[in-house]
Amino acid sequence: MPEAPLYEPAIDLPPIEGVSLRHMRVPEDFAAMTEVANSSRIASGEAFLTTVEDMVAAYAHLANCDLARDAFTVTADGHLVGYARCFWYDERAGDRVYQSVCFLDPTWRRRGIGWAMLRSLEARIGEIAAAAPKTPAWLQVHGDPADDGRAALLRKAGYTPARYHYAMARRDLADRADAPLPVGLEIRDVRPEHLPAIWAADQEAFADHWGAWLASEADYEEFRNSPMTDTTLWRIAWDQDEVAGQVRSFINAEENEQYDRRRGWVEHISVRRPWRRRGLAQALIAASLPLIRARGMTEAALSVDTENPSGALRLYERMGFRQIGLEAHYRRSLG
Questions:
Q1: Who has the most CB within 10 Å: 70, 224, 253, 301?
Q2: Which of 67, 37, 70, 63 is nearest to 52 (CA)?
Q3: Domain boundary pick from 140, 158, 176
Q4: Is there a domain that residue 237 lies in?
Q5: What's the whole-model pTM score?
Q6: Which domain holds residue 188?
Q7: 267 to each of 50, 86, 105, 281, 283, how far by Cα in Å?
Q8: Structural domain count, the chain
Q9: Could you check whether the bond before residue 27 is cis, i.e. omega within 30 degrees of 0?
């Protein structure tokens, strides 16, 4: 295919020989982008890695992101060493959030490249916001506060932590975490026709949580087509024809190989309001642990908003999960 033209940044890169920007090539860049993203995560101490298949699925269902104008890659002597993109979404509370995603190979950090990448995305966001309805709006970036370099860069750019999430792990799956399912509910095997109801129930359950967004059709398609999906690991509780709660576990084999561990993720834990305070979440987690143990896993992990309004953090601690990592949602008002 013809060589992609150079990307025209709003902020110039520092003058480093051989380093330049260009447009993102989809799907040709996905393997290199995955390598860069994971090496950046490992250097930052993050617990979660992604695969090329994850990248393909995510970019197949992008919303509010024009890759021709809202994304770029960084190359060094023709080799991809970084990439960035921005997109936006509307929260249920009415605010608009402009999210920046930046990954840079750790060997190229501390040369001013990351700063230029972030500021270029911010300039592009300014253009998008200028044509958008006037509403409270935020610039947002995710990061590990323990990553001193990234935290310092974000502070310099005016960002402060707005919310924290723990990564938590239960290191022993040998003991059984028994908890009865509330009377009148049953767990059923997942069939394809169940997916819309499962998705809708999850969206409703999280509607009152911090940062809850108005999901799009693209979000549903990404959920439906995720390469991590293994519905035989899901525990979905039904009350007759209504989904009452769910846990959608998965196993990231590539991540386990990288870190030489056997971890299953017990994630997407939600209970709809009419069924809360009855022990349903605990019962579904307890029903999920034997499933990942049967696949040879020796530990379970999950993530949680540290200020979750339904008391999820306390529940997970009671069930033997302990903090192993921290992620911050950094924000800056877009005035």
A1: 301
A2: 37
A3: 158
A4: yes
A5: 0.92
A6: 167-325
A7: 15, 26, 28, 11, 14
A8: 2
A9: yes
